[in-house]
């Protein structure tokens, strides 16, 4: 989790390295004010970072391995997890759109290519909008003229302040059958689209997480990705969900590393022989950090390996990828917050102020618990279901959609 495995990954890490001083300089104030680092994203554009996971043949840096993407996010997460979370959104879309471009239906490959080329130029910042707002159901309906109209509201959409496009999880009603799951692509300047910025969270305060309202937004027929059907049991979709989210684990590796370095630096600066309890805590912190790094690296290596193995039955491929991801995610969710808590204990009361880096990291590192797929209860359900061979629908998008309509 420190060195990329490919030349493309090394170029991305080097490019991000050139922006880290600026990221660190603004992290405290951006967190305090809940302000998105727009100027940093302008710098990302200048360095070609916004096209980091876009194939080289389409103008991007060509990073295709989740491991290398996570290494870059870990480096950025050490400087500011909020900024890393927002950039992850762009990287995630690059990875999933690349799959659509290479392997998707012929009808959607031009759409994927158009977005990827714009991302490589820095002209497109593409958000995923998955979670419906409270009891809302985001639906796509035919407009009677060959296109569609999108209505609904999405929440927890990160990188929203600078987004130019939204890939929206929606339902398309079907007569006499469960709705289809679709993902229309909607430009920010589309009539009827409103970005609602009311983000005031415990952590990840500078991630630009917003709500997006869609009021009969027109969507051309060619700007819609198919995602199956509500209630359909197809574990093949787990592969795409893993690719979309697994590299995010690097953010929490970076946050844990930053907390460790802050605490150890504090002890060294005090000088003298530290108390035995402090030595014990420091040793435990390093052991936990090693376990987090090793677990995430192993999971990402496994996911990259399985993702490339097209000989596997699609459902089995999806399950293998998601299981490695969820084992690592549960480990990170347990060890990383405990590690940061011990760092707070090492530093003592000085860290118990809103402006201290450890206070910010203690808040940010807990965000992983709430990130799909899966939140903790659903992750427990998934892993236990795999171990016990239980008959469950593992597609959280489908099960949530089905719940809305029941």
TrEMBL record:
Its cofactor is FAD. Residues 135-217 form the Acyl-CoA oxidase/dehydrogenase middle domain. CDD domains: ACAD. It comes from the Bacteria. This is Acyl-CoA/acyl-ACP dehydrogenase. Residues 249-368 form the Acyl-CoA dehydrogenase/oxidase C-terminal domain. Residues 21-122 form the Acyl-CoA dehydrogenase/oxidase N-terminal domain. Keywords: FAD, Flavoprotein, Oxidoreductase.
